[in-house]
Design a protein that fits this description.
Layout (H helix, E strand, L loop, with lengths): L6 E3 L9 H17 L4 E2 L16 H10 L4 E5 L6 H11 L3 E4 L16 H14 L5 E2 L8 H20 L3 E5 L13 H8 L2 E5 L1 H14 L1 H14 L1 E2 L3 H20 L4 E4 L4 H6 L4 H9 L4 E2 L4 H14 L6 E8 L6 E6 L13 E3 L11 E5 L4 E10 L2 E12 L7 E6 L3 H10 L5 E6 L3 H7 L6 E5 L4 H8 L3
Helix pairs in contact: 2-3, 3-4, 5-12, 5-14, 7-9, 8-9, 9-11, 14-15
Length: 471
């Protein structure tokens, strides 16, 4: 899946400070964005300076940002800046906002100052609060500081999370398993609080779509069959492989038909009666293509997958897991596992397409293999009683006993603390893992998602704020 966030870049200045120095810094900023290969829209055509400083330019600036469908706004304070105009544009465009100014130099020999960008940022922050516009702040730095690139990329990824969450629709395939009360969700609350919608379909609709592919789209089915055989050791029949290919295509087709970014499927036990399969291999292939699917009709898990996928922006692929059992010898070790839905691309070696051990190998469809270790982020969106939070923390892959299904052993900083959070809630036995550290991205994104609070199991809000400041 491609990610192509567009940044609206609106440099600002104030008349009482150096116009020449403001123009110089605006040009340096645009050159830096070009060097970073940032997709952006500027205001060079709005006035001869390409800067925001005059009230009369507001309608054009706002109209251009809206018509360009920018995903976020960046306001470099090229000198002091004009705080009321920045706030008016930010309020009207209603996208995530980043404010920043270049490090002020020492006064000139005569005592004059060129910019006072820091003072201008103090003013802009206050007025954005008055306008009730949530915003991000990149601490003052020079353009060639490593912090500038890291901080801007973090903001863009956070804006991508906000974009993907806006109007998010989850495909719900059948009901939750009757015995899994943990998978209950409040559909009305998700819509009211987060503008997240659920589109339910029956297993019959999935079955009909599978039949359509098998009868009328043979070449597409065969392409998926070949993909499976190239990526997996196949221990099931040819018919089972064909059926799995059709299931993968059917789920993807329904997701596109109903404009869904993720799906949650009742992977057992009704599905086995309907189509004679477990969906793990199909889910694995879909997740690798950016169409994540959760097991056991886990709607909150599907929301988590979208948030993490958006935060990673294609740099890594998330996987949907069970917290299962502690490591036999490592006191902070834990097994992340599921019957087989994890992306094939994450596997240490060629995985095996077979049947799930947990169900007496009753039907085909499971994937078996260990994924790569390394540094990871673990995340879970969840809530109950009207309160929602995002559980987040770090982990690293470690060695451990062989398991069936898709799995990885991880080590966390304090398993006892994590275990208590999972039991005391509002979380369940499911989580989403991803290689790399996406916590700073999600931390920043939560500035723009009302009603969702961060909840860390190995760090604090203060420590995450410090990371965003470059400390």
């Amino acid at each position: 899946m491609e990610y192509n966030s567009c940044l609206g870049v609106i440099g600002t200045r104030r008349n009482i400070f150096s116009k020449e120095d403001a123009l110089n810094y605006k040009n340096k900023v645009l050159a830096k964005l070009n060097e970073m290969k940032i997709n952006y829209v500027d205001i060079e055509d709005i006035n001869e300076e390409g800067l925001l400083f005059d009230e009369k330019d507001l309608p054009q600036v706002i109209a251009k940002m809206k018509s360009s469908h920018v995903d976020a706004l960046f306001f470099p304070h090229c000198n002091f800046g004009t705080e009321d105009l920045v706030a008016k544009v930010a309020k009207a465009v209603a996208k995530p906002v980043l404010i920043w100014g270049p490090q002020d130099e020492a006064p000139l020999e005569n005592g004059a100052r060129l910019r006072d960008s820091q003072c201008g940022l103090f003013a802009t922050g206050k007025i954005l609060r008055r306008f009730q516009v949530p915003f991000s702040y990149m601490n003052m730095c020079r353009l060639d500081d490593k912090y500038f690139e890291w901080r801007l990329h973090n903001f863009l990824k956070a804006a991508n999370v906000v974009k993907e969450m806006k109007g998010l629709t989850i495909l719900q395939i059948s009901t939750r398993p009757a015995g899994f009360w943990t998978m209950m969700v409040n559909e009305g609350e998700l819509l009211e609080k987060f503008d997240i919608r659920i589109h339910p379909v029956s297993l019959q609709e999935v079955k009909d779509e599978m039949e359509r592919y098998l009868q009328h789209c043979g070449s597409e089915v065969q392409d998926v069959v070949e993909d499976i055989k190239n990526k997996m050791i196949v221990d099931v029949s040819e018919e089972d492989v064909n059926q799995t290919a059709a299931l993968k295509l059917a789920i993807k087709s329904l997701m596109k038909k109903y404009y869904c970014k993720a799906a949650a499927i009742q992977c057992w036990n009704a599905l086995q009666s309907a189509v004679g399969l477990f969906p793990c291999v199909a889910n694995s292939l879909l997740s690798d293509e950016g169409y994540p699917v959760t097991c056991e009709t886990d709607i909150h898990g599907a929301i988590t997958l979208i948030m993490v996928q958006a935060a990673a922006m294609g740099e890594s692929i998330p996987f949907f897991a069970d917290w299962t059992v502690p490591h036999p010898t490592n006191p902070n070790g834990e097994l992340l596992q599921h019957c087989g839905p994890w992306p094939v691309s994450l596997m240490k070696k060629t995985p095996r397409f077979g049947s799930p051990f947990a169900f007496n190998h009753s039907h085909p469809g499971a994937l078996h293999g260990e994924i790569k270790g390394g540094e990871m982020s673990i995340v879970r969106f969840d809530g109950d009683n009207g309160q929602y939070s995002l559980l987040m923390g770090h982990a690293k892959g470690i060695d451990g006993p062989m398991n069936q299904g898709t799995y990885v052993w991880i080590e966390v900083e304090n398993l006892k603390k994590l275990e208590a959070k999972l039991v005391e809630g509002p979380y369940v036995h499911h989580c989403v893992g991803v290689h790399g550290d996406v916590l700073p991205v999600l931390h920043e994104a939560l500035k723009y998602i009302d009603g969702l609070c961060p909840d860390y199991y190995d760090t604090t809000i203060e420590q995450m704020d410090a990371k965003l400041r470059g400390e």
